[in-house]
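#lab-general

N.A. 3:47 PM
ok so I finally got the sequence cleaned up, no stray characters, all 419 residues accounted for. can someone with queue access submit it? mine expired

B.Y. 3:52 PM
send it over

N.A. 3:53 PM
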Amino acid sequence: MNTRNLLRSLGPGLLWAGAAIGVSHLVQSTRAGAIYGFQLVLIILLVNLFKYPFFEFGPRYAVATGESLLDGYKRLGKWALIVYILLTLATMFTLQAAITVVTAGIFSFVFSDIMSTFNWALTILAIGSAIVAIGKYSLLDKLMKFIVILLATSTIIAVCFAASKGFHPNPEFTKEFNWKFTDIALLIAIAGWMPSAIDISVWHSFWSLAKSKEGKHVPTIKESLFDFNIGYIGTAVLSIGFVALGALVMYGTGETFSENGTVFSGQLINLFTSTMGNWAYFLIAIAALTTMSSTALTCLDAYPRVMKPATELVFPKLKRTDSEKWNWLSWLWLGLLLSGTLIIIAFFLKGMSFLVDLATTLSFLTAPVLGYMNYKVITGENVPKEHQPKLWLRILSWVGLIVLTGFCIYYVIWKLFLV
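B.Y. 4:20 PM
back already:
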């Protein structure tokens, strides 16, 4: 592979990483370390491994066929598109609400005297909506490269500082992971967005197509997967970094994260400043603000962008010749997203952890269905044999589906009959 072309192909993978690195890392990974120390490191790595194929199939399918995963779902039958739309409707409001609440909490902490957390949430949604209505892929692409590098560098430095002080948890305040329902329920909440929700694979296929349409360089399969692997491996490494930060600073101290988003944000930033020093406050504040703002913006952009063509594929009469541009259908989906998000925020603003756990658990429960659909699409007859996944990736896909489905069934049975 040509090095210059590899660098020119970078973009969708980093954009995917920017969407993934947010609540799953800053909130859930850090909580995992603070509650269980390093006990979940191997499990989190396995979750990343088992989910890997279903995310990888997004850019693989887009580059191999010139179609998005939505077109692939249509090839399975209209039922697949309807399932995707229904699953998205079941998760998108809580996902956007959780991300917005965490983002608003950070703004409320950093700029404490300006406005309330709820007003920050309104402001974030309003500004984000205006940006996505007029923005383009290239803007998100360029912005994400800077943000991901800034957060990654800050996290690595903070973990090194924390590790240099040693790991000395007080046994009186330590907690063991015992594979009981309460532990598994929290694990599922953590794993739901680890590294992210599987429906983001559909977004990635759109970003890959957008990259190809830029005209500067059309990535090959190998180049596109190289870009994806950098983003995916990077998010996995950063998830362990945040687990380590939570473990090194909070595990065994008796301190727990607050349910209040603003207080939580202060605790999160303190994880960095307590290890690196107060001089790092502005660096970390900027990293946290840009990371969560970009994630909120990416989701606001992606849902209308993806749900619009999904609706058009189910109802072809709605499609127009300028189907790639914003129209009334785009505004309809954006309006639905904003309305549902605001309703959820109004009810759960003060219960940030509950809202985040609800959103991530819903995403985990939908993972096996979307994962199976992605597998069927990438092994379809329209995908050239040389671009279909190798045997090891097929085996990993089925192992992942079995593991994810097993945990989902266990969770549902416990919730419905044993709790």
